[in-house]
Amino acid sequence: MTTISLAVIGAGNRGNIYSDFATLFPEKFKVVAVAEPNQERREEFVKKHKIDRNKVFESYETLLEKEKISDAVIVTTQDHDHYQPVIKALDKGYHVLVEKPMSPNLNECYEMVLKAKEKNRLLLLGYVLRYTPFFQKLKQLLANGVIGTPRHISIDMNVAYWHQAHSFVRGNWRNSKASSPMILAKSCHDFDIIQYLLDSTCRKISSFGDLLHFSKENAPIGSSERCIDCLVEDDCPYSAKKIYLQENTDWPVNTISTDLSFEGRRKALEQGPYGRCVYRCDNDVVDHQVVTMEFANNATATLTMSGFTEKLERHVKVLGTHGEIYGELKSNKLVVKRFAKGEEIYEVTPSTFGMHAGGDFGLMEQFWTSLTAKEMRNAEDTILSHLYAHIAEASRLRGETIVATDFLSQINGGNRVSKLTSLSR
């Protein structure tokens, strides 16, 4: 069995999850290097993977200045910081797994794909949902014609009120200028799955949504800048004390500090961004958005993304010419109702490794399989999800339906249309 050596750029939450696969399956991957500016994170990562000191770096620039030290690189920095390390790694001859979204800048996405083609290197995007047993089974059912021809797909991305507060009000994805529009950061997954299931490309998109709740105007009377000393915190469902100072120290709590003791977490709320009042942050991304899509094969789709839900879960429904399929990712169960033929239930069993209903495991398995089989994908199809997210955001801001080819024609004089060969499918 071939063991692939890895260098990890960004030893945060996702970098740790992906690289932990190597500790469970050392015959497939070995982590040999890391680049991480945060000293505490870097030292914990080095200790976990027993990395030689001469392969430990504070920056990706220093790592990538060296002679090639591994077979592949995992890039799990913040959204805006993907482009340079990915391009430099590909230039150096590394294969690359990059966390989603590939980049908030659409042109940078295309440049990364072109660079991978030029260097004949694998560029795999961290679309973990594609590799869940749940969506693999759904794809198989549709390919087998179980419900005839799919005519409509709807996905409800229930973000959960506490996740909205953690990631999109207080956290790293709260501000579109510093990260990405929320529809790209959270739901590029969903655009990818919709296209993956329909096996077609989108022609038109319209979208609506806004930031309505998490603003100073809605701050409760008597509230303060931080939850830790707020007089009305007890009545607030978004209280940082409720989210971070309970018994749970797994995600998302483990992202606020490297010290997960009660004292360490309390200090993080007193000093860091996660202790701020949700009504007094510098957030500007939406708290709800809906997208309507029309595809080249005349199928349609809707995507609803909302932070105002109790649970964090995805619901999907596919309507076909001879039946319908409904499923909830969290339950790993698909219900097939064929017209006049009754109901069938399919249950899948995901890996217990990682998160995303087995998708983290599936992604790393795919990375290893592609590298050992020397399958050099160009990631063009997965870029389309970024295009759809950008079009949806433009539609929301402009208040109009947008044609995909018209949108592309406005980028770099329209040369992206010809380069994106799959757009005509």
Automatic annotation (TrEMBL):
Domain spans labelled Gfo/Idh/MocA-like oxidoreductase N-terminal: 5-127
GO molecular function: nucleotide binding
InterPro entries in the record: Gfo/Idh/MocA-like_OxRdtase_C, Gfo/Idh/MocA-like_OxRdtase_N, Gfo/Idh/MocA_Oxidoreductases, NAD(P)-bd_dom_sf
Domain of life: Bacteria
Residues in Gfo/Idh/MocA-like oxidoreductase C-terminal domain copies: 139-333
Similarity remark: Belongs to the Gfo/Idh/MocA family.
Name of this chain's protein: Gfo/Idh/MocA family oxidoreductase
